[in-house]
Structures are given as structure tokens and as C-alpha cells.
Amino acid sequence: MTIDTLSLGMRPAPSRKAARLWQGSAVPVLTVILVIVALWYAAAVAMNWQGVSDAFARAGEQRSTSEIFLATLEQERPMLPAPHQILVELKKTVIDTPITSRRSLLFHAWVTLSSTLLGFALGSLLGIVLAVLIVHVKTLERSLMPWIISSQTIPILAIAPIIIVVLGSIGITGLFPKAIISAYLCFFPITISMVKGLTSPDLLQRDLMRTYSASSAQVFWKLRLPASLSYLFAGLKVAIAISLVGAIVGELPTGAQAGLGARLLAGSYYGQTIQIWAALFAAAALASILVAAVGLAERFVNRRMGVRSA
Amino acid sequence: MLKRVTSEFGEKGDGPAHAASDHRLVAGHAGTSVVDIRGLSLTYEAADGPVYALSDVDLQIDEGEFVSFIGPSGCGKTTLLRVIADLEQPNAGHIHVNGVSPSEARLRRDYGFVFQAPALYPWRSIRKNVELPLEIFGLSKAERRERSDKQLDLVNLKGFENKFPWQLSGGMQQRASIARALSFDPKLLLMDEPFGALDEIVRDHLNEQLLQLWRKTGKTVLFVTHSIPEAVFLSTKIVVMSPRPGRIIDVIDAGILGRERRLEVRETPEFLKIAHRVREGLRSGHSYDD
Q1: Do B134 and B92 have their domain in common?
Q2: Cross-chain residue pair B136–A222, CB shorter than 8 Å
Q3: What range defines the domain where residue A9 resides?
Q4: Is there a single domain that holds both residue A65 and residue A153?
Q5: B113 touches chain A (CB under 8 A)
Q6: A116-154 CB burial, b ≥16 within 10 A, e <16
């Protein structure tokens, strides 16, 4: 993906669009990508060097430095795969493999995505309901908040297998347990941002409602909720990324049948580092798409609510 | 000076017993007072001891009057307005708004309140902001539309219905908030330094518009300000207040200036005489100290 962007920008295209690209942030962005790729190649050569030269030594072959150098970038199971190896793997598993195949990365991404989305929906619902309760019932802030905070201090890796096993013992398997783990992780930023948002209306705005003798339901629907939406979206952006992490973590203890987490686990079992990195890239791309989707929803809502465009 | 009416009732709630005694009191002072305040006191508990925001305030306001409250900050003029609006609770004394307690008046939607800032909801268009109270009162869409059209026309905001608050100037925003306060046709209009944040040119203009609006609608207006020319120009009655403790030191009748006023009235001897008396009142209240 990185290389694609790179060559696109570097191709001499004298169109107006390209000119604008260069005037804008294209140069700094490309520079950063270039530096990262260069550092990556350097790291790949350095980290794989010992392994390659040892392998040649074991085989009793004498190789020149340049041959070793090239071999560090073409190993089958390198310690650190070079960027182009990951791109080749991505092309193979995304484009060249039909989506129905278990070898297709898209198939695994879809498995993860479905539990991510279900978990995100459940987590958002839980997060919003908790926030509404906390804002409206004074005692709940004190009684509920410590539990909410301590829920986030428990390492998810410790609690994920418990959830899987407990739900499995009552016959719930597959998508749902993973979504629960995902929801468990992602409700927190939503609750926190939503509480902040629901309490954001200032005294004047609240006094106004009081002069109308508005009921608390009316204050909620006409003041608190609309005022909280920009805060909610900030929370949702964090939450959607976390719910993806939750779904991946949830796939690890299931015996890794399908999903990006399964690809990561299988890759580490068999030392398929390229497969691991490809799965990581797929997860990163998925997260970007999800965050962008939330951003798009936010822009739609903002336009409906007349928010001044920055 | 004001006639002080001491009262042995120190009511705090709106219980039936109080309501009964209130009734007797109202009967005793029957009149057309829209606002009737007797022996009103309000004390805050602050960290360094009690703050006497209002002390033994007596005031009667008749229907159709335009009453300004003037005084330095801390004199309780805003607090008094908020007590009338049932946004603050007094510690002692009696207050009636349209013959009932402030909370009953609030529940009856007897007054519209205009705050220091426009307090428009940023996610609502100007029309939707004006219709906010109407939505809360459960009016039909058609009726809401009709009323918001009328009120926006009245404050000269026709053509801005679908703009959002940030697209309007400060003066226009405050006009929108006045339209919102008038949209449900309350008997009373309470205004808390509504033009304080605006520059003088805009303020003069809005003052003229507000007077026109007052004449057209016949509302009773209670107007808090710290500007002497504004108070004299707008009012039929000026209430001069003084801080520590917040109390009324003078009530000046400015009816002599008539109801039809243009900005030029500010150069007349009558105007200057009233302004002088307001200034003297403020000085006698030691308002210029510290």
C-alpha cells in the first residue's frame, strides 16, 4: 500500500491535480513514508543478516556480501520481512485468492469485521446507556463509576478466555463471544465522552429550559443529547479502533479458526512472519476504514446540525 | 423613597399553608401589580461568610410598564430578576408574579427570559431556536411555523430563518433570542443585560427596536442594565439599586418622557434631569466606592 502511494506521487504528472498535491501536504507526507520505508529496509537487512549468513554457512556455501544482502530481503521466514514481501503476500491473499477461500485475507478480515461491528454496536449501546444513567441518577456516578473504571484495568487477555469458556459452556459460540469482548473494551471511551457531552450545556442553556418548565426528558432530547453528539463522535472514533482490537484478541483463545487474530496466531505457530505482518497490515487498513467511516458519519451529522466547517 | 412593608411571613416553600396566607396578603393589597415584592431577602452562603444578595426589597410593578433595574455589579439586580423568574429562591419575604408564586408563574409560562448572552442552541437554525419553547409546550407544527414567522418579522430577522446562530452578528443573535422569548406570547418579558455585550451603535439601534416592540406588544418588561442612558431611554420606571447588601435605594418615574421615544430624547432637559437623579441615587448608595 505504501509503495503504491509513493509511486503515484512520484510519477511526473503535470496535471493541475498533481500540482495541488505538491503544494499541499503531499511533500511532507511522502517524505515521512520514504523515511519509514528506508528505515524498514535497513532494519530488515540488519535483523535478517545473521540468519542468512548462518544458513549459508550451514549449507557450506561461500557467498559475497552483496549476495547476503539480497538474500536478507528474500527469505521465506525472515525475522523482519521487507515491505515488498508483505505487499506480495497481500496481493496473493487479497487479490489472487477468491474471497470464499480460507486462504483469502478478505475472508478473515470479514470474520473479524463482523464481530467488530456487532461488538461496536453493543458497546456503543452499553456506553450510551451507562452515560445517560450516570448523568441522570446522581448516586450512580459514585456507585457505578468505580466499576466502570476497574473494568478497564483488567487485562483483556486475562478475561477474554474466561468469557469464551463461560459463554461456550452455555452453548454460545462463534460471533457473539468475540463481540462481547469487543464491546467490553469499547464501551468505556463512549461512556466517558458521552458523560462529558451530556453535562456540557452551560448554565444559561439549562436555565433557558428551566424558564420553559421543560421536563427532564425534554431537556435530554432537546438540549443534552444534541450537545453531546460532538463528544460522542470523539468517543466513537476511539471505540471503533478498540473494538477491532477486542475482536482480534477474542479470536486468539478460540483455537484460531478464522479471522485476522487467527491469521496472527497461525502465523506465529508456524513462524510465518510474512503472514503475520500481512494480517497486521490488513488490521491497520481495516481500522483506518472504520475510523474514516465514523468520521464520515460525523461529518454528515455535523452538516445536519449546522456546525461551522473548520 | 419606597414605602417599606414589613412582613412576619418568612416563607420558603409553596405549601398549601403558605398558599392560603399568600392569598390573604394578595387580597389585602389588591391591585393590578404584575410583580409584587415585599420584604424580599436572599442570602448566599459563601466560603467567607454569608453574602446578602438582596435585603428587604419592596417593589410593585404595574401591567404594561417598562421597568429598568440599574446598579453596579453585585447590587442584586440580576438576582432579583432571577427570583422573579423562579431561577433563585429567596430566604424571606413575599413575591407574587401575576398574582401567584414565581414557580406557579413559571409553570404557567407567564414570562419570557432574555439572558445576557443569546443562549441560542448552536445546532438549531434561527427558526428552530425561536420554535424551541413552542416545541416544548407541544404546539402543532403549523402553529409553530406561524408564530416563528411572526416573531422573526417583529425583530426584523425575516430572511434569516434558516441560518444557524454562528452565521448571525451578535445583535442579530440577541434579537433572535428576544423573538424566542416572545414566541409563546408571555405576559412578562424579563431581560438580563441583553445588550451588555454589544457595541454602543448596535445597542442604540436595538434599544429603539425594543421600544417599538414594547409599544406594539404591550408587554410588561423588566430590564436589567448598568447603563444610565439605556435605563432612562427605555423605561417608564427606573429602579436604582445598591450593593452590600443588595437593596433598592430609589424608584424614579420616567413616564414624563412619553411612550413614543426617539434617540433624540436623550438630549432633552427632562431626560438629563432623570439621568442626573439616577446618577445621584447610585452615588448615594456608595456604589462608586471600591
Answers
A1: no
A2: yes
A3: 2-80
A4: no
A5: yes
A6: bbbbbebbbebbbebbbebbeeeeeeeeeeeebeeeeee
